[in-house]
Amino acid sequence: MDHIYLLRHFLATLAFRTQHAIRGAPEHYPEFKAGKNVWTPLRILNHMTEIVVSTNEVYRGHDASKVELLPWDEVVEKFHSALHELDTSLLEVEPPRAGRFLELFQGPWLDMMTHVGQLMTLRRLAGAPVETEPYYRSKIRVGQVGPDQPLETT
What we know:
Helix content: 55-70%
Number of strands: 0
Low-confidence stretches: none
CATH topology: Four Helix Bundle (Hemerythrin (Met), subunit A)
CATH architecture: Up-down Bundle
Number of helices: 4
Shape: globular
Largest sheet: none
Order of helices and strands: HHHH
Number of domains: 1
Distance between the termini: 22 Å
């Protein structure tokens, strides 16, 4: 298994887990405040989207740019479209040198998975926890990074 396939699987897993955290959330969830200086789910998902967009720009050899903050429905759509663009870049662009590749993985990419955990915790604190999911049995498909994730297991 090559590292590009592994990264694409990671993106599909990120899309799956993000949808698991946000799908069917109550209306108040995006703006839920757990405490002082704690980001709302809306702020977290905007940040995750900025990470995906910036990572794609860096992966393509450009400077990272700021992404404007979007309302919930728009940022969900933008997050998944940005994942699709990054997934496409992984197929089209020559991979960066090994050290840069590891920097992207250990920095922004794993940061996003940490934020998925925050979304799950905030969902529970907002009074709408999600069902436990045996993630190792989830039907993750490489290249499937849209919001239409089938939240099912084998």
